[in-house]
Design a protein that fits this description.
Elements: E1 5-12, H1 24-45, H2 55-61, E2 65-70, E3 77-81, E4 106-107, E5 118-122, E6 125-126, E7 130-131, H3 141-146, E8 149-153, E9 157-167, H4 184-196, E10 198-201, E11 212-217
Parallel strand pairs: 1-9, 1-11, 5-11
Antiparallel strand pairs: 2-3, 2-8, 4-5, 6-7, 8-9, 9-10
Pfam families: Sortase (PF04203)
Organism: Eubacterium album
Keywords: Hydrolase
Length: about 230
């Protein structure tokens, strides 16, 4: 089977996370529970023979699961959820639908896996590089150069190549509204806007028809400014 290479970008932004005030010990207990839960999921769906992900198993356990995301070189290895009738449900719920300040990484309710030009996946930036906090590493140019592959498994495993890392204010660039291009001109204008706000990017530009994958989180080090 021909390997499918698509384009992706890492998008880091402030303003999407929910700040939860909880006692320190309770927070640590919840943190450990969430991390163990994700570790158990990863171990249960990783095929020992070829290390591929059995997404169908996850879908049987929770119909909201639509895929699995892996970012080699980071701790990101999580199921991806989607709830069209309650867009941000997994912002504060775990895979088993219990309340969790960690939440679970999820695809925008407005995205269609097969049709959308831009797939946007959200996840919390948890201190210590947990969840999408691991994306902070892409602020480093050397890390960006050495970790360009991202894998997203839905109906099959797709390889995406990171082409840009953005630091952006969501009020100045409403990237989250771009799901489907009206035409080639609209697509190209969006790509140019992405490059305008990029910290790092590749020389090769995207072509109309290439699907983008955005990983979106907060920059905890910038206060109310977007990364």
């Amino acid at each position: 089977m021909k390997r499918m290479i698509k384009r992706s970008l890492i998008l880091l932004l402030v303003g999407m996370a929910v700040i939860v005030a909880v006692p320190f010990l309770k927070e640590k207990e919840a943190e450990k529970k969430s991390e163990n839960g994700f570790k158990e999921i990863q171990e249960s769906v990783t095929e020992k023979k070829d290390r591929t992900i059995n997404v169908e198993k996850l879908k049987r356990e929770n119909k909201d699961c639509i895929g699995y995301l892996e970012v080699p070189g980071t701790s990101i290895s999580y199921p991806i959820m989607q709830t069209r009738d309650n867009p941000n449900y997994y912002l504060n719920h775990d895979f088993d639908k219990n309340y969790s300040f960690y939440g679970t990484t999820y695809l925008s309710a407005y995205c269609d896996l097969k049709k959308s030009d831009n797939l946007i996946i959200y996840g919390h930036n948890i201190n210590g590089g947990k969840m999408f906090g691991a994306l902070e590493q892409y602020k480093d140019k050397d890390f960006f150069d050495r970790h360009r592959k991202i894998y997203f498994t839905a109906d099959r495993r797709r390889e995406y190549e990171v082409f840009a890392v953005m630091s952006v204010n969501v009020k100045k660039f409403k990237y989250w509204k771009f799901i489907m291009a009206r035409d080639e001109k609209d697509y190209n204008e969006f790509v140019e806007k992405v490059l305008e706000h990029s910290l790092w990017s590749t020389e090769e530009k995207l072509k109309h028809g290439e699907q983008m994958l955005m990983l979106s989180t907060c920059d905890n080090g910038k206060g109310d400014a977007d990364l």
